[in-house]
Amino acid sequence: MKLTKYVLAFGMLTGATLPYTLPATEAFATTKKEGVVSKDVIVRAASTPKSKNLGTLTKGTNVTIYKETTYWYQVKFNNKLAYISKDHVKLNTKKKPTTKKPTTTKKPATDTLVSKVPSKKAANATIKSNVYYYKTASTKGKSLGILKKGTKIHVNSTSKFGWVEFDFNGQKNYVYKDFVTMTKK
């Protein structure tokens, strides 16, 4: 009898003090946000630059954000959950229903797909997959185009933050290191 009272008292005590957690579907519903793509953005299968490229969302596309990480938003793309960089989305301050459907395109009309990078120095690296390259070592900098998978470049240096510097048209340009494979000599 004493053991039963103890077990019941312990159960009520722990049950009363444990926090209640919402099921995942309810938690997502309360954190849903709306946004607009501010710059063409590559859609990824996971929240990492190394993940599979699923396509591109073009500037002006409305998106519903289901989940947020430090650098990524989870959105629906072709009726599947996918990820886009937070740097390319402007959150709506007013809640409006999504009216424009995402458009899929492998090559945005406004970006130049580059497959050959002329350099005075011999190429020492290859691009792993189609990737934007920038004027500065940041995704917030101006995107100058897309380097095509297999493009050979000459890497000048790599910053401590992972940005690879290379020359193109007499200017320094940058691409993230995860998209570059150094070639062996």
Topology of helices and strands:
Layout: H1 2-17, H2 24-31, E1 33-37, E2 41-44, E3 53-57, E4 62-68, E5 72-77, E6 80-85, E7 89-91, E8 113-114, E9 125-127, E10 131-134, E11 143-147, E12 152-153, E13 155-158, E14 163-168, E15 171-176, E16 180-182
Parallel strand pairs: 8-11
Antiparallel strand pairs: 1-4, 1-7, 2-3, 4-5, 5-6, 9-12, 9-16, 10-11, 13-14, 14-15
Written account of the structure:
With 185 residues, the chain is mainly beta. It has two domains: 21-106, Roll (SH3 type barrels), CATH 2.30.30.40; 113-182, SH3 type barrels. The chain is built from two helices and 16 strands. It has a five-stranded antiparallel beta sheet. A hairpin with a 2-residue loop joins strand 14 and strand 15.
> By helix and strand content, what is the structural category?
mainly beta
Uncertain ranges = 12-30, 102-110
Under CATH, the homologous superfamily of the largest domain reads SH3 Domains
Report how far the terminal alpha carbons are from each other: 80 Å
The count of domains is 2
**Taking strands numbered 1, 2, ... along the chain, how are they ordered across the largest sheet?**
6-5-4-1-7
Percent in helix? 10-25%
Mind telling me the CATH class of the largest domain? Mainly Beta
Q: Assess the beta-strand content as a share of residues.
A: 35-45%
- CATH architecture group name of the largest domain: Roll
Shape: elongated
- Whole-number average pLDDT? 76
Assembly type: single chain
In total, the number of strands is: 16
**If helices are DSSP runs of H or I spanning 4 or more residues, what is the number of helices?**
2
Order of helices and strands: HHEEEEEEEEEEEEEEEE
The whole-angstrom Rg is: 23 Å
Largest sheet, described in full? Answer: 5 strands, antiparallel
